[in-house]
Amino acid sequence: MRRPRGLRGLLAALAALCTAVLAATTLAGPAAAGEAPHTKAAQAAKTTSKATSKAAAGSKVVGYFTEWGIYQRNYHVKNIETSGSAAKLTHINYAFGNVTGGKCAIGDSYADYDKAYDAASSVDGVADTWDNGALRGNFNQLRKLKKLHPNLKVIWSFGGWTWSSGFGEAAKNPAAFAQSCYDLVKDPRWADVFDGIDIDWEYPNACGNTCDTSGKDAFKNVMAALRAKFGSSNLVTAAITADASSGGKIDAADYAGAAQYVDWYNPMTYDFFGAWAAQGPTAPHSPLNSYNGIPQQGFNTDATITKLKGLGIPASKLLLGIGFYGRGWTGVSQDAPGGTASGAAPGTYEAGIEDYKVLKNSCPATGTVAGTAYAHCGSQWWSYDTPSTIAGKMSYKQQQGLGGTFFWELSGDTSNGELIKSIS
């Protein structure tokens, strides 16, 4: 659900159609939601999940940093430090590397390792050099940030909304794919920068920007190959669908079977609703739980966590997802959720989406629903999380014994890290 801005609205209808077709053809049988498992192993997994939910919550704080943020958004690695975010983070997910030709590949070489930072823009106040073999760009800035924060880990994330189409080819030879990723992440020029790999496949055996038909086992096989290659000394994580609807995207892939290979999952519990449904109904994009009138059952954080835990995935391997942005409509007269609209509200980079740091001033929250905030200002209607609603979600994280929190993405926060400082 995360990507360079654009594309989603135009392709949402195709994605919905393809998902329905895939659900009808590939999700029949015991794996479909609503069908109770009948094996002793499944029952044991349920029991384990209940016990795990009572365990103490983890303290991971994982934030995405986008490589393209250095352009229009003018958000650089140094901003992670000056905002106070670096002191709160345990891990940074660097988004994104590409997946093409069955291999991991560089996403933007200029942003990644070539852009020269002067002293004023550099994390440590020292300018990059053009010496032979010198590392520059985001990678060098991340190296410097890690020196300031020795316990901070950086994970290279591959795929995302725009670049997930390559996973289908990669899944045909998982071992070769894993080898290519390892060779890239552990390239001697920046091997010390990265502590592991994150896979953001949107979506295995289902539809996102494009539709995948790799089969239910493909994701598990890819994650198994990555763990085998990266070993236990590197982190292997994955951002996964939050679609807990019956026959939805969680049912399309073997996330439970792959869980043994990952350090944790990042279920993307945001972007549930948005102005790709141009006429509405208006609905919060990141509801913590269900509410009367929600447009789609299974599209809320609690439903996602409950379903994943019910599959036997330990709570400690699930992080709570938060968006540092809002989604909105225009042409709305109704204050409460469920109103009609005429289209997407204008946004700085893309219609229908805006950073929290902008919305807190341009359209302040006027109400709350399902553990998140909404705002009706003029004819616009937005939903987004605030420090107050994040505090509520932190209570939920604690109650569920989750492994921590992750968010998309750092540049959406205020210059003093208002949202990340609400994460506990």
Helix content: 25-40%
> How would you sum up the major sheet?
9 strands, mixed
Task: Name the shape in a single word.
Answer: globular
CA radius of gyration is: 21 Å
Uncertain runs are 1-53
Number of helices: 14
What does this structure look like?
This protein has 424 residues and is of the alpha/beta class. 30% of the residues lie in helices and 18% in strands. The protein has helices at residues 8-26, 40-53, 77-82, 85-88, 109-114, 137-148, 167-170, 174-185, 218-230, 249-252, 255-258, 301-310, 356-362, 387-400; strands spanning 60-66, 91-100, 103-105, 153-159, 196-200, 235-240, 264-267, 319-323, 325-330, 343-344, 353-355, 367-369, 372-377, 380-384, 404-408. Strands 1, 2, 3, 4, 5, 6, 7, 8 and 15 form a nine-stranded mixed β-sheet that branches. Strands 9, 10, 11, 12, 13 and 14 form a six-stranded antiparallel β-sheet that branches. Helix 8 (174-185) crosses helix 9. The two termini are 24 Å apart. The model is unreliable at 1-53 (pLDDT under 50).
SSE arrangement:
Elements (H helix, E strand, L loop, with lengths): L7 H19 L13 H14 L6 E7 L10 H6 L2 H4 L2 E10 L2 E3 L3 H6 L22 H12 L4 E7 L7 H4 L3 H12 L10 E5 L17 H13 L4 E6 L8 H4 L2 H4 L5 E4 L33 H10 L8 E5 L1 E6 L12 E2 L8 E3 H7 L4 E3 L2 E6 L2 E5 L2 H14 L3 E5 L16
Parallel strand pairs: 1-2, 1-15, 2-4, 4-5, 5-6, 6-7, 8-15
Antiparallel strand pairs: 2-3, 9-10, 9-11, 9-14, 12-13, 13-14
Helix pairs in contact: 8-9
